[in-house]
Specification:
Elements lengths: L12 E4 L14 E4 L2 E4 L17 H18 L7 E8 L5 H11 L6 E6 L9 E8 L3
Parallel strand pairs: 4-5
Antiparallel strand pairs: 1-2, 2-3, 3-6, 4-6
Length: 138
């Protein structure tokens, strides 16, 4: 396969940002929109106002992650019902049933595709992180 590359591609990327979700803790955007698609950064269970972890309790952390994700989706002209793919990172796979329970309440059918992996650690000692790819109304 031969690629004919003649210069930088034009993607019309739009940075999405909201104060209703925690600000980025590094050099990245809360989300990036490209046309009708929205790509969120991983959301961890930080309180948007204090920037601190909401709790050490997994269920409370998952609930906060979904609130943060919802805020970013809405800032990017999307909703949970428009999410097509979720990637979930867990420090402990024993938390998988709690994630399923929370996701069943947050998302509607048809549910988004999902991957869930166990990781050694997450930023700020979070137990869960979730990122999404969604359609958006433009």
């Amino acid at each position: 396969m031969v690629f004919d590359y003649t210069g930088p591609m034009k993607t019309n990327r739009e940075e999405i940002s909201t104060t209703a979700a925690p600000s980025a803790v590094g050099p990245y955007s809360q989300a990036v929109a490209v046309g009708e698609m929205l790509y969120t950064a991983g959301q961890i269970p930080l309180d948007p106002e204090s920037g601190e972890l909401v709790s050490s309790d997994t269920k409370e952390q998952i609930a906060q992650v979904l609130r943060n994700l919802d805020a970013v989706l809405r800032a990017g002209q999307s909703t949970p019902s428009e999410v097509v793919k979720i990637t979930c990172f867990l420090v402990d796979m024993a938390d998988f049933p709690a994630v399923n329970e929370a996701f069943a309440e947050f998302f509607t059918q048809p549910y988004p595709a999902r991957s869930c992996v166990q990781v050694a650690a997450l930023p700020k000692e979070a137990r869960v992180e979730v990122e999404a790819v969604a359609l958006r109304s433009v």
